[in-house]
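Document type: protein sequence-to-structure record

Subject area: structural biology

Format: plain text, a pair of labelled lines:
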Amino acid sequence: MTSEQIRQSFLDFFESKKHSIVPSAPLMPDAPNLLFTNAGMNQFVPYFLGEREAPYPRATDTQKCIRAGGKHNDLEDVGLDTYHHTFFEMLGNWSFGDYFKQEAIEWAWELITEVWKFPKERLYASVYKPGDGEPANFDQEAYDFWKAIFEKAGLDPDIHIVYGNKQDNFWMMGDTGPCGPCSELHVDLTPEGNTKGSLVNADSPYCIEIWNLVFIQFNATPDGDFVPLKSKHVDTGMGFERVAGIIATSKNFTDFSTPPSNYNSDLFTSFFDQLTSLSGHEYQRTLPEDLDNISEIEMKDVIFRVLADHARCLSCSIADGILPGNEGRNYVLRRILRRAVMYGRRLGLENGFFAQLVPTAVKQLGQVFPELEKQQGIIQKIIQSEEDSFSRTLDRGIQLFENTLTKDGNISGEEAFRLFDTFGFPIDLTQLLAKQKGIYVDTEAFNVEMEKQRDRARASQKKTDILVADSNGDTEATTFLGFDTLADEAELIDIVKAEDSSYLVFNHTPFYAEMGGQVGDTGAIEFDGAHFDVIDTIKDDHGRFLHKVSGDLASISSGIEANLIVDHDRRRSIERHHSATHVLHWALRKVLGTHVRQAGSYVDSERLRFDFAHFEAIKPEELAEIEKLCNEHLLDNSIVRWFETPFDQKPNDVIAFFGEKYGDVVRVVDIGGFSKELCGGTHVRATGEIGLIKISSESAIAAGTRRIEAIVGNSLYSHINEIEQLIATASQSLSTAPADLLKKIDSLLTRNSELEKRLKKFQQKASGNLANDLVKTATESDGLKIVRAEVQASDPNALRQLGANVLGKLGEGIVVLGAKVKGKASIVAFCSKGAIGAGHKAGDIVRELTIRLDGKGGGKPDFAMGGGTNVTKLEEVINTFQR
């Protein structure tokens, strides 16, 4: 069977058992504590926790997974063996309070033995048997079902059922919450196949776990109890690559003479064929016998496995909108990509080879994960851009790496940190280069230096702690009314004081508290006989809105009523800029691609700032198209509406920001039907209220992250007025009409260029004359002519040019010149070949002289320059120079 047939037969089998086939969740997880989706159960966690009701009682899927960071990290093992991957598929079937152990076990056996024809005598099942102090009881239920199955197959249950403790056969989501025993299916792949279960859970490559059946039946409490759940679930996971590799290696279970390998299936062989074409090396299926002494042929096979795995990982993650970057999951991807490029270089592959593997990944996986086919062009562009950038970093970094080797051949922690902090060379690449050379990197000392840097960063940050008063014990969240009104009468329920600030808390409010990139409202609060200006509105950890005010609070106390009035004009301007970010986000995705995802935003009454994931600078014509699309939709005056809906029932075309924590009910902001996002901020009622959008800047804020700043509404109106005033002032100063301003500027620039050329000729002539005069002052020492003088020069470059002219006219000798330039002393030194041969070096001369000028400098033996702040000593330093 091909891998495609295996995957499809799994889904077809469980569909025949009345399971809904569910699409794979993206690799970008919903859970904020995960770097990547790393298991099939991730998307179903809310059903297990009872947070949401499952839309189907039974489900089956193939889930894309990455394990390359956090708790599950297989990155360093990839390539060195035949079963670790950063990216893999997990086949699974699920029951949400429907069937339980019997069906799960019987169907697993049916698929494995009757559909896929695994030899029954080579299969072993493990069941949970607790050790001392471990939770729950022996899983008698599962044992009885397996016992009946093996007896029916004519196999001895005492041999084919193996017991496992908590570590191997009890699954927990965390220290508390849903949990339960599990049963695993293992297959004996030794040539004889008669190990009688002795290799199960023994970390042998010849006995592989292929399927884990988890029975979620308990709730682990904080007290350490395991309480039976009212609703029991089944959660299974099968390693797709493992199954495909087993079937391919054994040639459909007809030949067990070859050691098992996941990399023997057609999921990887197509990559190996392409790498053979690119490198000239054929994959030999070897494995390192000694990890500290890997042979050349073994290393080439390791590289083949690494590159095939990493190409799948990068292609799928980029297709899901996770781009290589500098932080978190994005940095993990960058590290994987750089690791691939490093290994590729060892195979002699040239820059750009990794991007060439993308079509193979798309061909292998595109039919089951269609986002790969849709994003193929973007994936290749991003990977090529990263390759180009890293190749430049690598060339520079390798040279720096060689220069930092200590006398004993190792890399100190301080030098490793300097490579990272000063030259941008990541520690993991320093370690990889060191590993290839068999040398040591002091990572402990590196981590100490990193922590010092973090301390410096933390010390530079100003943070205000809001101390929430709890005198009345009221921590109920504030009800926000500001979507519908900007004025309200509310009851004061608390007064919070922190350092020099005071905050008022009401039972409800129209003031928006700063969150989601939108700044807090300002305005006024009026009590009977007292008035307070609201400077800002923030939100505390309890969901209470804190209104920052100034003034004496002695006249007010909790329990009294007040009128809360939001600054209308400011709020409306904020709403225009906030709605504009949604329109801008839509246009960016329309022009650049759906890989574009918001990476941060800031919205106030004057401007908007929108950060987003993208791999290269936006071309001017693309920016123009983005701005044009935005304004076309604003002129349509499309209706803006918002509504709340259960998270599971949100429309499929609504953009949710993965990594955010959403509750059961979410708020959808729909702008004209073309832009739909989850958002808790305030917005205009129709796009016409925004006016026009003008992009003021586009820049990079980090590798893989861009920033656009823009203005709308009154801010844009003021901006246009300023530009018109500038044009009018410039026109008046140049005595020309605004329409002729460009012609006038071109004329002036042309004239200025001509004058500069004439001036340069005069300067060159004067410099030549001065050089002749200086040569006449030359003295002689040990057969070398020496010119030393303080001269006048407009800048250091002019001083350098003069010194070069003098040496050219002098012939063999030494030239030392100094000048006072913009309040500082500058020095240049030149040495001819003869002078260098006699032991003189310009760099040494400048270093010695600039120290006496309270400065520094240096250079090469033939030329050097530098300077200092002590200009009063310049003449003395120059005149006392002797050689």
Notes: The CA atoms of residues 274 and 357 lie 8 Å apart. The chain has six domains: 3-264, 265-401, 405-459, 479-566, 574-720, 771-879. Residues 461-473 have pLDDT under 50 and may be disordered. The first helix runs from residue 3 to 16.
